[in-house]
Design goal:
alpha+beta; Nucleoside Triphosphate Pyrophosphohydrolase; 2 domains; three-stranded antiparallel β-sheet; 3 helices; 10 strands; 21% helix; globular
Amino acid sequence: MKETALIETVVSREEKYRGGIIDVEKWQVRLPNGDIATRDVVLHNGASAVVAMDNQNRIAMVRQFRCPVDRVTLELPAGKLDHKEEDPLLCAKRELEEETGLRAACWQKLIDVRTTPAFCTEKISIYLATDLSQHQSHTDEDEFISAAFYPLSDLLQMIREGSLSDGKTVTGLLLAKDVLSNK
């Protein structure tokens, strides 16, 4: 089957909610067979995440409480783009320094990942950052974060055990492992 035979065409969009991080719209789409269907869509500007590795193969990670899952999570430093047109690399650099106080001299893009394309436009750009230097962190007023370094091998074990399950973090760490093992 040709890809064009799968395409849905947006017929109308209705704003349902406007928030600080997301907007929600109800879309009417024309299906390939001509019927009309409804799609609930979460609009998100996108984000960046950073696998910041020091010269001992340790990764900078942040712990923070995540209300939607009612628990403290262990994640890569990350944050949302300030606007749709923001350069994801600049966002990554900003978020790394804000959350950990780290700056990196070397940057490599690992991937752009669509987190939940069934209902959300969010795309997270994930970078590998090396040649780190420590500076002052400066989190946002509403961010309470604890940053620390973890050996990559320990983080990979946490993924295998299921104790580390944040999607962007799992993706970033597995790709970084792959990139580093091919050097």
